[in-house]
């Protein structure tokens, strides 16, 4: 531990050269190249800020293009359900078939979440590539759909791809970004996902559902080529002991003139941990690894935030938005509301990119969930009182439900949505990310499936306004959970984040030892 800490606190001045040599003595050879063979970064000038981040931004957008395609696949459900229930095409769905179509993507994503860990253990870039081809096939299946089961199978396949991509893209971005910009760039996967939904909403205004599916297939094709031009993440290569490849990948992302001394030391730390437990397919299926004391707290925090993000109601509200809005008595066109919700998601995610760089994750989570809860209370009240004004014309119900939906969507996109994705790559130790990704991802998507499929059941028991208020209560409970239990990670290195939980575990062991010694003394 002392050797690792020595590497971590080494400065980026000329003393960094001697620190690097000490690390060689302590750790020896690593994989395909020794640390002594790493390039000397101490005398490289710092480039202009914009030029420094061009390769990183380009890689982030290219890697997340499949998020755009997956967002379009989920966005397809909202306008398509409206068309398929209104006898406007050769294929018509009943309400029960509509709930299956809306929810099976979540069930497919659960299976994709289980497969995400093994896929990620082979490489973040490879995992992204694996998910592209089923997504293309699903779009083609929708184009030629002749019965409801075509659509249901296609939605399940799309969900599978989304389940794999949601973690793989987030890890790719987080592991290639710098510590300073990790929060802002970590929003890009969510931003691209929301952009895909918005593109689909706008296109649906001009297209039928099957033409929209053909458009979605064309939107997905660039994702097939994107992984061909991108390197693997330096962190993943370091955990495999491939230090030369890791340094070359880091140079690709940072540019030829960037000082990488501090990040090279971080890679050495990651490589030292990689020798203790390198991610592998075999390791992904060892469920008992979740009992490791250094993982338990990060695991349950990740699981808690992910499940709370599903029970806040964003998926059922997005899927059934046009139907919900029709029940509010609002005079605003429901298609316009759907497009506005897509714009709100984009705006909220852009705001998150700025705020995550400046303020903590905890603050964003707490306030976003509080505002979401309040806006859902307002939406529920509009639905409740609309029954009393159903035969009256009033401007109040023209804009209040619309405002409540927009505020709810923006609040989710500002805090809960991006942070629930970032949290895995921040607080979970590198060697446990595959198993954590599989287990928490699967349980998260299972929660989304249950909430989406059972939405009309909840509505039948509590009425529509009661179902909306249930989601409001869950938002408030999520804010309470974050306030009392979740630590802040903004600006911390992976080493410092690991110590937030490792030190707690060691402290508990130390306290137990002290109590035992005191008992023996007595």
Task: Describe the fold and architecture.
This protein has 522 residues and is mainly alpha-helical. It has one domain (58-234, 276-501): MFS general substrate transporter like domains (Growth Hormone, Chain: A). The chain is built from 25 helices and 2 strands. Strands 1-2 form a two-stranded antiparallel sheet. Strand 1 and strand 2 (33-34) form a beta hairpin. It is globular and about 65 Å long. The two termini are 34 Å apart. Residues 1-50, 277-285 and 510-522 have low confidence and may be disordered.
Any key phrases for this structure?
522 residues, Growth Hormone, Chain: A, two-stranded antiparallel ribbon, 1% strand, disordered N terminus, disordered C terminus
A few lines on this structure:
75% of the residues lie in helices and 1% in strands. It is mostly helical.
Q: Please describe the biggest sheet, giving its number of strands, its sense, and whether it closes into a barrel.
A: 2 strands, antiparallel
How many β-strand runs?
2
CATH superfamily: MFS general substrate transporter like domains
> What overall form do the CA principal axes indicate?
globular
Which bin fits the share of residues in helices?
over 70%
Number of spatially distinct domains: 1
Q: Give start-end ranges of low-pLDDT stretches.
A: 1-50, 277-285, 510-522
The chain-level mean pLDDT equals 77
What's the end-to-end separation, in Å?
34 Å
Structural class from helices and strands? mainly alpha
Give the SSE layout.
Blueprint: H1 2-8, H2 15-27, E1 29-30, E2 33-34, H3 49-63, H4 65-75, H5 77-84, H6 95-121, H7 124-143, H8 148-176, H9 182-185, H10 188-204, H11 209-220, H12 222-225, H13 234-239, H14 243-254, H15 261-274, H16 281-284, H17 296-311, H18 314-319, H19 321-326, H20 334-358, H21 361-386, H22 396-427, H23 433-453, H24 455-485, H25 494-521
Antiparallel strand pairs: 1-2
Helix pairs in contact: 1-2, 2-15, 3-8, 4-7, 4-8, 4-10, 4-11, 6-7, 6-8, 6-23, 7-8, 7-11, 8-22, 10-20, 17-22, 17-23, 17-24, 20-22, 21-22, 21-24
